[in-house]
Amino acid sequence: MAQSGKGEDRIIRLVKQPALTSSPRPFHTKCGRTINSKEDQFRAVVNLRTAGEQNQPLSPEAEGEVARAAGLDYAHIPVAPTGPQSEQVEAFRETLPALPGPVLVHCASGKRSGVFAVLHAAREQGLSGEDALAKARALGFDWQSPELESFVRRHLDRRA
After folding, report:
1. How much is the pTM?
2. Does residue 18 have a cis bond before it (omega within 30 degrees)?
């Protein structure tokens, strides 16, 4: 797990193979400049926003069209801002192997994408919920949500 950037522009690279990056920004906005950078070269995008969310620059359908037009694979796994469900995490984990890396996963604030990326990385590394949260905090994740942290613990620890 590694991090780069500052503040709300920060993107966090969680897994090297396949490369997985969590971002609070959709790829077509501020992070869009990184798609073709030599450093990142994203080849796929996973959008966790639901249709009709506030301040959504493009609908998930339109974002998919933009991504595909840019030559990227695209997946949409709608996760309500109120919190993820285990079934959605499993759908995310089942989708990732079919996508070429590096993969950019995003939502509106980085909370959902961060949780999903951390859960994926933690499962790949065999981490407990508490160990995953400690690593996430060390990377700068601050979900400011006891509910999300509890979800991470429960999701990982019941699989231990």
Report:
1. 0.82
2. yes
